[in-house]
Design brief:
- There is one protein chain.
- The protein has about 110 residues and is α+β, with helices and mostly antiparallel strands.
- The protein has four helices and four strands, in the order ββαααββα.
- The longest helix is centred in the first third of the chain and has 14 residues, at about 15-25.
- The mean pLDDT is about 80.
């Protein structure tokens, strides 16, 4: 249960602080407006907002860009037909098109 301070409830712990800051930011409203509507002391939420921005609060998730490496060379699949033709395809091929080509080459 949150304690009361001047102007509304005070953030009582880190979990509550993180939740309230996230709710305020998601609302798109100004700090004062959101706090008035939710009976939260603006100075308490501002304090936690700053902690979240600077990463001072423990266990706050931080956003990190992750880039996945693409394979240097795609896998190549080689199909040799009795007629002497060879079909080479790489990853991401269109299965329907390959079936048609195989059908044509098998009947050649």
């Amino acid at each position: 249960m949150s304690k009361r301070g001047r102007g509304g409830r005070l953030v009582s712990n880190e979990t509550e602080g993180r939740e309230w800051v996230a709710a305020w930011r998601a609302s798109g409203k100004g700090l004062s407006s959101w706090c008035r509507e939710n009976d939260v002391a603006w100075y308490s939420l501002r304090h936690w907002s700053r902690k979240c921005e600077t990463g001072v609060a423990k266990n706050l998730p931080s956003l990190v860009e992750i880039r996945f490496a693409q394979p240097a060379t795609p896998s190549v699949y080689r199909i040799e037909f009795r007629c002497g033709r060879t079909l080479e395809i790489t990853d991401g091929f269109d299965e329907t098109s390959v079936r048609r080509i195989v059908g044509v080459l098998e009947n050649a």
